[in-house]
Amino acid sequence: MVITGKTKVKEALKNISDFDPLPLKKMLDSMGYSFFTKEINSNLYETYIFNLKEKQEKKKTITKNGKVPVVIQSATPVTYPIIIKMLESEQIKNKFEIAELKVWRETEKHLGWIVNDKADISFTALMSSAKLYNKGKDIKMPVMVVWDNFKILTRGYRASTFEDLKGKRIHTPLFKNAPPAAITMYLMKKNGYNTDDFEFVFGNPFGRPDEIKDCFVRGECDTVILREPEASFALYETGEAGFTSIDYGKLWQEMHPGSGNLPNAGLLFKGEFVKEHPDLANLFIDELESAVNWVKANPKEAGIISAEKMQAEAPEVEFFLNHAVLDFKRSFGVKDELKVYLDVLKKEDVLKTEDIDKTLGLFKW
Q1: What was the pLDDT predicted at 9?
Q2: Which pTM value belongs to this model?
Q3: Which single residue of 28, 215, 255, 295 could bond 33 by disulfide (Cβ 3.0 to 4.6 Å)?
Q4: Tens digit of pLDDT for each residue in 244-292?
């Protein structure tokens, strides 16, 4: 369910689920909604959602010094080194007033800011952006920067194929219909495996990447699916005991020759911001390209400037940057690659739409 922000004061929406919807409630909290959940039984929960506040006044579009105030957010820390480098840009400093910068550890909260028009610029997953766009949200995703972001790590043993994971508990972020599990199951099926032969373990109500990483580092989990930067942080902390066992990017390219890398996340603009400030939007994109290229070419220096914000040591961040696939690509230039990914999400029932070509409007610039 997606809350559009149009719920009237004193009205309520009811959400029915088979688990206590903590991710939804965290997102609602970030949007300023009130709610309460009633447990009918262990498999039935009713959550009532209220909009108790009138819509806030629209923020000023220009400050006294002529800068445009913006709220920037990232769904995960993976783009933090890029963002920090961008904020050093004189062009950004001269044209933008950073009203707020937020990097979420609880990923779902960033969706509330997009839905509620609180964030002007977001670094977020392709999947969640496509879902919101299909529901009528006025957003644009002109650039992809994060690729091949999923990894299966093993501890104490190596897995060369999915066959080696049978009998193991695969600790998985988020939930079954989220990309980490959905893409994994798709790759398994395309390689001739029955996904019922594998045990995926999700948290309650879903798996947190940080918690899964810590479980792996402590040696309590020996098989995990992780994204960056948690995957690299886990390998850095476990040393020779940890292995990257399944290379998603390699499998993806073997199954879809010529399709490029597996797309994960990119730059998202609020549609209103693009309409009001097209020149600034394009300037931001240009500065993003420069920042991505600098981070790729200077992982050591990028680790130093972003370590404190990422709550890690500089060598650990450098290790992550040497293993992550960060690459600036304009979305419409690689729309065929993105379409392949969206088609997979549709096939796996993650993205519900009748017309993938219509979804490609998200990338038009």
Answers
A1: 46
A2: 0.81
A3: 28
A4: 999 888 889 888 888 889 999 999 999 999 999 999 999 999 999 999 9
Domains annotated for the chain, with CATH where assigned, are 1-57 (no CATH), 68-147+262-314+321-363 (3.40.190.10), 150-255 (3.40.190.10)
Please tell me which residue, 231 or 116, carries the higher pLDDT value: 231
User: Before 77, cis peptide (omega within 30)?
Assistant: no
Q: Which residues contact 184 (CB under 8 A, 6 or more apart)?
A: 150, 152, 170, 172, 200, 225
Using DSSP's 3-state secondary structure scheme, residue 63 falls into coil
Question: How far is the C-alpha of 346 from the C-alpha of 136, rounded, in Å?
Answer: 18
For every residue of 94-148, DSSP letters joined together read HHEEEEEEEE-SSTTHHHHHHHTT--SEEEEEHHHHHHHHHTT--EEEEEEEEES
Closest C-alpha to 242, from 253, 232, 255, 252: 232
Residue-by-residue DSSP string for 275-341: HH-HHHHHHHHHHHHHHHHHHHH-HHHHHHHHHHHHTS-HHHHHHHHHHSEEEEEEGGGGHHHHHHH
pLDDT at site 61 = 64
> Which 3 state secondary structure label does DSSP give 70?
strand
Instruction: Using pLDDT thresholds of 50, 70 and 90, give the confidence band for residue 1.
Output: very low
Q: Give the pair of three-digit tokens for residue 359.
A: 């979804």
Kindly indicate the confidence band of residue 23, based on its pLDDT and cuts at 50, 70 and 90.
Answer: low
Helix (H) or strand (E) holding 234: helix 230-238
- Check residue 30 and give its pLDDT: 52
**Dihedral of the alpha carbons of 319, 320, 324, 330, in degrees to the nearest 10:** -110
Q: Which two tokens stand for residue 166?
A: 């049978």
Determine contact, residues 139/60, Cβ cutoff 8 Å: no
- Distance (Å, rounded) from C-alpha 24 to C-alpha 3? 10
For the segment 197-256, what is each residue's pLDDT rounded down to a tens digit? 999 999 876 788 999 999 999 999 999 999 999 999 999 999 999 999 998 888 898 888
Instruction: Determine if the peptide bond prior to 315 is cis (ω within 30°).
Output: no
**End-to-end CA, the chain:** 28
